[in-house]
Amino acid sequence: MSTLTAVRLPSARLALSVLAVVTFLAVAGGTVAPHDPLLQDPDLALRGPSLIHPFGTDYLGRDVFSRLLAGTGTTVVAALESVGVGLALGVLPGLASLWLGRTVEWVLLRAVDAVMTLPFIVFAIAVTGILGNGLSQAMVAIGVLFAPLFFRVTRAAGLSLTRAHYVEAAELFGASRWRILRTHVWGKVVPTVAVTAAQATGGALLAVSSLTFLGIGVQPPAPTWGGVLASELGFLSQQPWAPVIPAALIMVAVAALNALADAIRPGGAA
Prior knowledge:
The chain is about 70% helix and about 0% strand.
């Protein structure tokens, strides 16, 4: 199934609609927020939903709806940053392992095996502890851990192409490795990498939310999806329904990315 055909599927259209909304909020969420996400009003603390505050207020009287809107940009950009690092560190080495000889292949495979043993959250916490508590540092750490995924997917997609007849013919006619990769290999690897990137972005959103939930990467009172969820969980006895809203937002965004990945996967949903 081609990508154009896949995006006509109802699941793909729904996923794209959700992601379009998330993208808009990532760009303009702070602008369209009805209230200042940092404005505190203790007199309005822990109020329920109303026309003025659709999702209620938190323990400092801040509007939860505005904080979620304003925090979308930080959360989404951080997730994309980690996926970008993973792509940069995984795709090119994955192709290089197929074309630069057995020594390079062995070194790269051993490096990937070593990185795959590192736990996501613990490694990110360790990196921020060494380099400073910044979201970029944490996302670089997460991106490094995504690199083996892109490495293996790219390598697997390109492995069957190294001995394809048209690739062998190009080699016989004297085409350089770079030209072969660019002309005959890259176009056939990209769809698989795109599917993996969509799925990895969903995982990155969960990682960002987990880290900010723990207070890593973003210092309060800056709003993030995970930070809002953490603040709501501290007052379950007063507002047992409140954590459902940021949790649902995270779940819907991740589900949309996974649905899109399933739709555009070669031979995916029909």
